[in-house]
Design a protein that fits this description.
This protein is α+β, with helices and mostly antiparallel strands. It has 3 domains: 21-92, 2-Layer Sandwich (Dna Ligase, domain 1), CATH 3.30.1490; 98-222, ATP-grasp fold, B domain (D-amino Acid Aminotransferase, Chain A, domain 1), CATH 3.30.470; 231-376, Rossmann fold (3-Layer(aba) Sandwich). Helices cover 38% and strands 24% of the residues. The chain has helices at 5-14, 28-38, 65-75, 125-131, 149-159, 163-182, 219-222, 232-239, 258-270, 287-298, 317-330, 346-355, 364-376, and strands at 23-25, 42-46, 59-62, 79-80, 83-84, 88-92, 98-107, 112-118, 136-140, 185-195, 201-203, 207-210, 243-246, 251-255, 277-280, 305-312, 337-343, 360-361. Helix 11 (317-330) packs parallel to helix 12. The mean pLDDT is 94. The chain binds guanosine-5'-diphosphate and manganese (II) ion. Manganese (II) ion (MN) binds next to loops.
Length: 377
């Protein structure tokens, strides 16, 4: 689950990180009022789950409340990477001397939270890391001991020469680690961490992703979920109890079990196609789930063929077959569907589908190849 900047800033403040004040507005009038309250220049910032808002025109400096209103008018309703801006953060503008990058994320290869810091912050850190790796310092944290003080110092020392700045940054880096752990985050990032001309270090942007598996035991974090800001297909999938990840291909996949879903995607690739999604309908054969899955898959205009791959264990193939027929009755589906079912009650399922006019198969290779062909036809 991704947090908005203003929410990540709340988490950061709670950990003691110096973050300028700020409040959220949903209308231009509210933005104007907040700007008047802060007095002086403010920054109006789009709250969407996406980076690169600055480049997209979603971060604007306003010298007066009227100007803040004008920016909010433009930013609210704006599309950034396919997401509609519903809220803006209004925050007093800071004077910036330097911009650094500080981030911590789970590195699965190292099996440890890993810090990445760079004095070349503000812009795209991926580019900095790729083109000028010497400008980046990394550190894997042993989760048994947490981030040790000398490690936080070693990271901060890479960013600044001035002792007073290093001292402040050391503290912020430790606080960021605490916030990362106590939020159940998979990623927490300050970009930019600024220095002001008067020598203060502050976080003026904040980003955080929470591991969904941490939410059940962190209700205050779970309560930050903003369904309106999520891609509609993913919100719908979660509500229906499906695991769904949208991808860029054209073969819609509907599979039971995460392992089989991964294998199916591999096989689609093997036959020269590209999966449009990862979708695990789970262990149940509830027709409502099949309907929801088909609605989600067909809402993607890229999908040119739909592939069902069901291995019946606890899931009964006949239940899934009935679910597919029920789904066809309830919604209109344009792309061709190919179905593979095997396992518990497969004979009954094949008969049900045959009777309804849907050819179904038991070989995985054959249906995947067929789906790829149909999608590229
Ligand atoms: P992002 O583009 O989504 O990462 O949004 P950021 O909050 O990081 O803002 C992008 C850039 O806008 C920053 O790197 C700064 O250069 C600039 N910016 C953001 N807030 C302020 C501010 O308070 N004062 C000034 N002068 N610039 C700011
Ligand atoms: Mn940023």
């Amino acid at each position: 689950m991704d947090l908005h900047e203003y929410q990540a800033k709340e988490r950061f403040r709670a950990a003691g990180i110096p973050v300028p004040p700020g409040e959220v507005a949903t209308t231009p009038a509210e933005a104007e009022k907040l700007a008047a309250k802060y007095g002086g220049a403010v920054v109006v910032k789009a709250q969407v789950h996406s980076g690169g808002r600055g480049k997209a025109g979603g971060v604007k400096l306003a010298k007066t409340p009227a100007e803040a209103r004008g920016h909010a008018e433009k930013i609210l309703g704006m599309q950034i990477k396919g997401l509609t801006v519903e809220k803006v953060l209004v925050t007093p503008a800071e004077n910036i001397a330097t911009e650094a990058y500080v981030g911590v994320l789970i590195d699965r290869a190292k099996q440890a939270p890993t810090f990445i810091v760079s004095a070349a912050g503000g812009i795209d850190i991926e580019t900095v890391a790729k083109e000028t790796p010497e400008k980046v310092r990394k550190l894997a944290v042993d989760p048994r001991y947490g981030l040790l003080p000398h490690q936080a110092y070693w990271l901060a020392n890479f960013l600044y020469d001035d002792d007073a700045l290093i001292k402040q940054a050391t503290k912020i880096i430790s606080q960021l680690y605490d916030s990362f752990v106590s939020s159940g985050a998979s990623m927490a990032e300050i970009n930019p961490m600024i220095t002001t001309p008067s020598g203060e270090v502050k976080a003026i942007d904040a980003k955080m992703s929470i591991d969904d598996n941490e939410l059940f035991r962190r209700l205050e974090v779970a309560a930050m979920r903003d369904v309106s800001a999520e891609p509609p297909a993913e919100a719908k999938a979660r509500a229906a109890g499906l695991s769904f990840v949208k991808l860029d291909g054209n073969v819609g996949c509907c599979v039971n079990g995460a392992g089989l879903a991964m294998a199916t995607m591999d096989l689609v690739k093997y036959y020269g196609g590209n999966p449009a999604n990862f979708l695990d309908i789970g262990g149940s054969s509830n027709p409502d789930k099949v309907v929801a899955a088909l609605e989600i898959i067909t809402s993607d205009p890229n999908v040119k063929a739909i592939l069902f791959n069901i291995f019946g264990g606890i899931t009964r193939c006949d239940d899934v077959a009935n679910g597919i027929i029920e789904a066809m009755r309830r919604i209109e589906i344009e792309p061709p569907i190919v179905i593979r079912l095997t396992g518990t009650n497969e004979e009954i399922a094949l008969k049900i589908l045959e009777k309804a006019g849907f050819p179904a198969y038991t070989s995985m290779d054959a249906v995947v190849e067929k789906a790829v062909q149909l999608a590229s036809a």
